[in-house]
Design a protein that fits this description.
The strands form 3 sheets. The protein has a 5-stranded parallel beta sheet with strand order 2-1-3-4-5, sandwiched between helices. Strands 6-7-8-9 form a 4-stranded antiparallel beta sheet, with helices on one face. α7 crosses α8. The protein has 2 domains: about 120 residues, Response regulator (Rossmann fold), CATH 3.40.50.2300; about 100 residues, Winged helix-like DNA-binding domain superfamily/Winged helix DNA-binding domain (Arc Repressor Mutant, subunit A, Orthogonal Bundle). It starts with 5 loop residues before the first strand and ends in a 6-residue tail after the last strand. By secondary structure, it is an alpha/beta fold. The chain has 9 helices and 11 strands.
């Protein structure tokens, strides 16, 4: 019998934590709860988990600092939990290495769907299998899939894990337009029932600011109105 996948639940509100625990275990996953960022970080670094469900507003060490420190050591998927009005928190969380977010209140079926999709993607290494070791060059933009490094004009560009995966996928499949729904499925590993396409837009926006000379007039990742995004290889003079 296969060992159960393990989820670390980091939530300081005991009632919410208990609800998460009950539903995660009911879905056939193992779960451990922590109630502050410091003890959660110690647990996450010492033990192997398949996914971390992380509230941002935590005592002792908040979710942002948790993400920053944890990403220096491990690439386990992280889903952050935010209040509906905290748009900037979602963006910052994604920048610090979270893979996705859910806004409170959220539905339990959506929660379980996203947890399982992230675990499946991480376990099967969906994106990494598709972008096997190679170096891709597009003008002065270099994407090195051997060490997951990106440079432009010789300058190293720091990207989050999800930004890198999206860039590598689009570059590998350059000059083909992908809808937001297709990118959710291919890069995030979600089915189309619960995939939130705003996640794609947020990641593209941050990625453009990192790799483009002018994010408002991108050279590479361009928008096709009503269709989606495309990585363009033929640059205009």
């Amino acid at each position: 019998m296969d060992e159960k996948k393990k989820v670390l639940i980091v939530e300081d509100e005991k009632m919410i934590s208990e609800i998460l625990y009950v539903n995660v275990t009911k879905a056939g996953l193992a779960a451990v709860c922590k109630y502050d960022g410091k003890s959660a970080l110690e647990e996450a670094l010492a033990t192997s988990y398949d996914l971390i469900l992380l509230d941002l507003m935590l005592p002792i060490l908040d979710g942002f600092e948790f993400c920053r420190r944890f990403r220096q050591e491990k690439d386990t998927p992280i889903i952050i939990l935010t209040a509906r009005e905290e748009e900037n928190d979602k963006i910052l969380g994604l920048e610090l290495g979270a893979d996705d977010y859910l806004t409170k209140p959220f539905s339990i079926p959506e929660l379980i769907s996203r947890i399982k999709a992230n675990i499946r993607r991480y376990s099967n290494e969906i994106v990494q299998n598709r972008i096997s070791g190679e170096i891709m060059r597009f003008g002065d933009l270099v994407i090195n899939n051997d060490n997951y490094e990106v440079t432009r004009g010789g300058r190293k560009i720091e990207l989050s894990k999800k930004q890198y995966e999206l860039l590598a996928f689009l570059a590998k499949n350059h000059d083909r337009v992908y809808s937001r729904e297709e990118l959710m499925e291919q890069v995030w590993g979600y089915d189309l029932v619960f995939g939130d396409t705003r996640t794609v837009d947020v990641t593209v926006t941050r990625l453009r600011k990192q790799i483009e000379t002018n994010a408002a007039k991108p050279d590479f990742i361009q928008t096709k109105r009503g269709m989606g995004y495309v990585f363009v290889t033929e640059q205009k003079e």
